[in-house]
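Quick one, tokens below:
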């Protein structure tokens, strides 16, 4: 879609800006790839953060990080409130420079570098706490699943909408002790389960990716990751609901200070990521959606996805990188 002749202040006008975001996720993925399988997740995360921060210097926006990463486990981060970009329209930024730090450290699948962009006020300002989530892909009746409904009811409704049996469905769930009851009820209902050790952004996106074989995402994970996943679903299509989970009153007060007026509110995908949203991700390790970084002497190959909600365009990009000419990432 062409840019309007007289854009409003802060409106994204450059349709190539989404492609520029790929440079940012590529930089983070390339930096993190040096740490694959070395058992040092914080070092991998730190490398991705610094590379992403430097790459943002080339993007023509005046960006503010509203969703950062790393507070929960004290890993390095692009901190909330940090200003990024070389100047331009005012934008809000959601980042996870390395989603799947443990996956990277262990050489496991589905580690990705992610970033999302929207106009000011476009993203839910979610604190780094947990969020209960449910997500399905596009092309389904609105409200086919509901966060407050029993898992059996959700699976039956989804199977009916997809004109299949519950036993044909695959649910993606983080393999955590807190999900034991959810896993048991899902199996009791007859659905199959794909348990993942980390990487719930990729898990949510998988529901809207036909080649992933995932039909529904269930369970709790990080709230910042929930916003990033919602941004992707806004672009690629799908339904998602999320509710913040609190361990103490201080977390409730922190959420309120960030604009969450009702602590028990059930957020829709449009409430978590609204307006013209752009999303980009680059694979670090091989996964169902993206291939991982493939390094060779003097260079590397990356595989990325970039999406924009306004146009609905989804692009997969293979990048061939020459380390003798790149100055923003260490070989």
């Amino acid at each position: 879609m062409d840019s309007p002749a007289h854009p409003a202040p802060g409106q994204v006008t450059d349709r190539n800006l989404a492609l520029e975001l790929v440079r940012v996720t590529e930089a983070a993925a390339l930096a993190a790839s040096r740490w694959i399988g070395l058992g040092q997740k914080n070092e991998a995360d730190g490398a991705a953060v610094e590379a992403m921060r430097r790459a943002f210097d080339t993007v023509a926006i005046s960006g503010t990080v509203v969703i950062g990463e790393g507070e929960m486990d004290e890993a390095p981060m692009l901190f909330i409130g940090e200003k990024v970009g070389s100047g331009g329209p005012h934008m809000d930024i959601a980042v996870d420079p390395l989603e799947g730090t443990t996956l990277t450290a262990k050489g496991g699948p589905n580690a990705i570098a992610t970033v999302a962009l929207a106009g000011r006020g476009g993203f839910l300002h979610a604190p780094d706490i947990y969020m209960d989530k449910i997500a399905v892909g596009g092309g389904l009746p609105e409200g086919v699943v509901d966060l407050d409904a029993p898992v059996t009811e959700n699976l039956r409704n989804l199977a009916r909408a997809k004109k299949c049996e519950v036993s044909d469905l695959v649910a993606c769930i983080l393999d955590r002790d807190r999900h034991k009851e959810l896993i048991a009820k899902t199996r009791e209902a007859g659905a199959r389960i794909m348990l993942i050790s980390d990487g719930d952004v990729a898990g949510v996106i998988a529901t809207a990716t036909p080649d992933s074989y995932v039909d529904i995402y269930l369970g709790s994970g990080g709230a910042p990751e929930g916003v990033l996943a919602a941004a992707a679903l806004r672009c690629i299509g799908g339904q998602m609901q999320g509710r913040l989970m609190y361990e103490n009153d201080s977390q409730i007060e922190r959420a309120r200070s960030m604009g969450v007026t009702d602590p028990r509110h059930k957020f829709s995908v449009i409430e978590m990521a609204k307006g013209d949203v752009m999303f980009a991700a680059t694979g670090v390790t091989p996964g169902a959606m993206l291939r991982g970084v493939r390094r060779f002497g003097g260079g590397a190959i990356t595989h990325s996805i970039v999406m924009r909600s306004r146009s609905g365009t989804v692009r997969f990009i293979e990048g061939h990188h020459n380390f003798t000419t790149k100055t923003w990432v260490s070989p």
